[in-house]
Design brief:
Elements: E1 6-7, E2 9-13, H1 24-34, E3 38-41, H2 46-49, E4 50-52, E5 55-56, H3 59-70, E6 74-78, H4 87-91, H5 118-135, E7 141-145, H6 161-175, H7 178-185, H8 212-240, E8 245-249, H9 258-262, E9 267-272, H10 274-280, H11 286-291, H12 300-311, E10 316-321, H13 339-349, E11 354-357, H14 383-397, E12 400-401, E13 408-411, H15 414-422, H16 431-444, E14 449-452, E15 464-467, H17 475-483, E16 487-490, E17 517-523, E18 530-531, E19 537-546, E20 550-554, E21 560-565, E22 568-571, E23 573-575, H18 577-590, E24 602-606, E25 610-615, E26 621-623, E27 626-628, E28 633-637
Parallel strand pairs: 2-3, 2-11, 3-6, 6-7, 7-8, 8-9, 9-10, 10-11, 13-14, 13-15, 15-16, 16-22
Antiparallel strand pairs: 1-12, 4-5, 17-19, 18-19, 19-23, 20-21, 21-22, 24-25, 25-28, 26-27
Helix pairs in contact: 5-8, 6-8, 8-15, 13-14, 16-18
Bound molecules: beta-D-galactopyranose.
Length: 638
């Protein structure tokens, strides 16, 4: 991972096509005066770029880019492929994605296309080529964005004919013969054997659950389709432009393997909506949601910063930052004054190169008219405008950021999320939230964390490695763990399936040097915690372990909960916060890592040069003899 210092910059998302051209120059002037560097444009404007098939109008975009550029702003140009215009449907009536029930995704919003439709891909290649040819050498176009938020609105999986054909080809390549596929999937079960790839359907509309191996391969295939769709665009752009290419990922979206798309991109970016996410997708208790209602979860943003730093191999941005109330969550509160500043600084502390607010001016029309911007619909500054201004001022005093080395690594694997979604074996088992829970525990202890990919082959930089819930251990990771001389904590469920989605023998976790076998598992309803002898409990999930490994934690009923051999530990369950903090603190003590719990809602992050404290609480926080106000950020030189 790159650790060279780079400049921190601010930006904004702008839609020149939404405003009269007479307004552009004034907007650009105000953006520059505010201290912004970047303006992202273009990603939804296909109907204005190509209003009828093959008729391009670039003149307005030329002028928009010129106007922004002449005010010293740098443009991130988005390809518009998330919003195919209405005429596309007349040319390709079958380009729509179909949902699990076989219903088409209708026109009238966005992201209605099927990743597998070859005709639609050809249309995308055409518009991206035309854009890249025209703007590839434009001095103001300093970065690109492909599409917009792949997978957002649950749009990766499509049960269309195009997907079915492509899936059959993918299977034929992977297995070579129907017999090999039958064996791998265990199709003798329920007489599901196939004699020809052309007979294999998509895993929907079955009477009861489809074969998990079938679904797992469909998920892998669907992820590969996103990767190749994205690659089609990056290959075209690279032919014409030297500028770096980004994609804007989302929060808690795991439908495709972001590490795999990341390989084809220069920058990973993500769209951070802390209050929307807390209201919409974080399964937290009500008192937590109430405490952080105007600030967001104290760890959710940081988790994604660390994840996307890994996906971007060191280079990452916030492409969209919430500036005020959004429109799309169940409840859309106003951020506490100061949060638009805090969120930006937290991103910078985690190594972001740029933070772009979404959006410049609130649109008075269409779906997002209730979504705040830096400006109100009447162009007067909204709350976040002043906060962005403050960040811009502060950046001039401290322009460079370097990512600090972390002693702790947490493995994240998209395929494991698919695996446990396919076979949770208990409603409350979620891979994503298990990993996030571990991350939260580490953060509560004030640690810097690197999230690493599941095929990481070198762990030598880390004193402590956590790999919860990995459905299978990759060969490189297995070798890296074997060579690692720090502490490793694996489990629960780690290495409990084969690649083909079956239970391996010898039984899991089958870790080198650790004599332990999972001989039974149970999932636990929400109100059935299993107390541990040393305090705290296992929740959601636990395993019965057999073997001669040392029992380090045990449940009150005598089942081992954590077993160890030297520095290798296997966790046979999902520890609650009390148990998790104890286990992590013990591991940190073993490795000489300083790890003291921070007060609730206060978080710490070290950059290469500074120690940052962020107060996510609605009340002041005390730490180390200082008081940090609500939404406060404090930094001291290291
Ligand atoms: C993002 C999306 C933007 C806008 C924004 C509203 O998910 O990329 O286009 O819709 O949400 O919060």
């Amino acid at each position: 991972m790159k650790r060279t210092p780079h400049q921190r910059t601010l930006g904004v998302c702008y839609y020149p096509e939404h405003w009269p051209e007479t307004q552009w120059a004034e907007d650009a002037e105000r953006m520059a005066a505010l201290g912004l560097t970047w303006v992202r444009i273009g990603e939804f404007a296909w109907s204005r770029m190509e209003s009828t098939p093959g008729t391009y109008d670039w003149t307005w975009l030329d002028r928009a880019i010129q106007t922004l550029g002449s005010h010293g702003l740098k443009v991130v140009l988005g390809t518009p492929t998330a919003t195919p215009p209405r005429w596309m449907l007349d040319r390709h009536p079958d380009m729509l994605a179909l949902d699990k029930d076989g219903k088409p995704r209708g026109f009238g919003s966005r992201r209605h296309y099927c990743f597998s439709h070859r005709g639609y891909r050809a249309e995308c290649a055409k518009i991206v080529s035309a854009m890249a040819e025209r703007y590839g050498k434009n001095p103001h176009v300093a970065a690109w964005q492909t599409d917009n938020e792949y997978a957002c609105h649950a749009t990766t999986l499509s049960y269309s004919d195009a997907a079915k054909q492509a899936f059959r080809d993918w299977l034929a390549q992977r297995y070579q013969s129907p017999d090999a596929l039958n064996r791998a999937w265990g199709n003798i079960f329920w007489s599901m054997e196939y004699s020809d790839f052309k007979d294999i359907g998509l895993p929907n509309l079955t009477v009861t659950e489809p074969n998990p191996s079938h679904v797992m391969d469909f998920r892998r295939f669907a992820s590969d389709e996103v990767v190749s769709f994205n690659r089609l665009q990056t290959e075209i752009i690279r032919k014409h432009s030297p500028a770096p290419i980004a994609h804007n990922y989302m929060g808690a979206v795991t439908e495709f393997d972001h590490f795999a798309t990341g390989v084809d991109l220069d920058i990973a970016s993500w769209d951070s909506y802390p209050l929307g996410f807390l209201s919409d997708r974080i399964p937290a208790p009500q008192d937590h949601k109430l405490r952080f209602v105007r600030q967001g979860d104290p760890d959710f943003q940081a988790f994604h910063h660390d994840l996307y730093r890994a996906v971007g191999r060191g280079r990452w941005w916030i492409m969209e930052q919430q500036p005020g109330p959004v429109n799309w969550a169940p409840y859309n509160p106003d951020p506490l004054p100061g949060m638009a500043r805090l969120w930006a600084w937290e991103a910078f502390a985690h190594g972001a190169e740029a933070v772009c607010y979404f959006r410049w001016r609130q649109a008075p029309f269409a779906q997002e008219q209730m979504h705040a911007g830096l400006l109100r619909p009447d162009s007067a500054p909204a709350q976040a405008f002043g906060e962005a201004e403050e960040v811009a001022r502060e950046l001039t005093a401290m322009p460079d950021v370097g990512t600090a080395a972390a002693k702790v690594a947490l493995v994240f694997d998209y395929a494991s999320d698919w695996a446990w979604e396919i076979q949770p074996q208990g409603r409350s088992f979620s891979y994503f939230w298990l990993v996030f829970h571990m991350y939260k525990g580490l953060r509560r202890l004030g640690l810097n964390i690197d999230i690493v990919a599941p095929d990481t082959s070198d762990l030598s930089a880390y004193r402590l490695v956590l790999a919860p819930g990995l459905f299978t251990l990759s060969d490189p990771l297995k070798a890296a763990l074997a060579a690692h001389n720090g502490t490793a904590i694996l489990g629960p469920r780690t290495n409990s399936k084969s690649e083909n989605f079956s239970i391996p023998v010898p039984l899991p976790p089958n870790l080198p040097g650790l004599d332990a076998k999972v001989i039974r598992v149970e999932s636990l309803p929400p109100d059935v915690p299993v107390p541990l002898a040393q305090g705290g409990a296992l929740v959601n999930w636990r395993e019965k372990l057999e073997g001669s490994a040392t029992v380090t934690e045990v449940a009150e009923d005598g089942w081992p909960a954590l077993v160890s051999a030297g520095n290798m530990h296997y966790l046979g369950g999902w520890p609650d916060e009390t148990a998790l903090l104890r286990i992590l603190q013990r591991a940190c003590a073993d490795q000489g890592i300083e790890a003291d719990p921070l007060p609730e809602g206060l978080r710490r992050r070290d950059s290469a040069t500074h120690r940052f404290l962020f107060n996510y609480n609605p009340v002041p926080a005390e730490w180390g003899g200082v008081t940090i106000p609500p939404a406060g950020v404090l930094w001291t030189a290291l």
